[in-house]
Predict the 3D structure of the following.
Amino acid sequence: MSLYRNLVYAADFIQISPAVAAGTSDTLTFTEVNFLGQFDSVLFLVALGAVTATAVGTLRAKGTNTSASYGSGTVGCFLDPLTATTAAPLGATIASALCFTGDSNKMMALDIYRPQVAYARAELVRATANIAVLSVTAIMYNSHSAPYPATGVSLGSGGTAAAPKGEYVVSNPNLSTT
């Protein structure tokens, strides 16, 4: 467990896709992340633009031990452990986040916690009607050794934001403020 209060020292934020024009009946595949170094979990965030009436979007993630070697279709998709059964102990359904009509300007999130693979990538399946994507971000977390200087964000002076009145911001949490 990390003792660092500032998220920017306990995670890394990577933009894995810029804006993607509205589209339908396709699968967007985003840049992979790897778990071979500092982190062992990832949260994929998709910022949505306009979601046209009747649109359906499915965010899912795939894993592999060999970079850029993902199966086609749903092969390699992470399974939802909450749907585990005796016959399918890892999960019976694919872990996913969904968006529908009315979800314009919202976010989709899919958390992959400690997968047993070296690489993962997110995919967005767009069906029925147009879905615009503003950006896709991977937040790598569960650092093996904190602090970790986030590489995907631009930090302000001192690497921290201003503290509310009565609180201290300490760049090095090993230093005491008392």
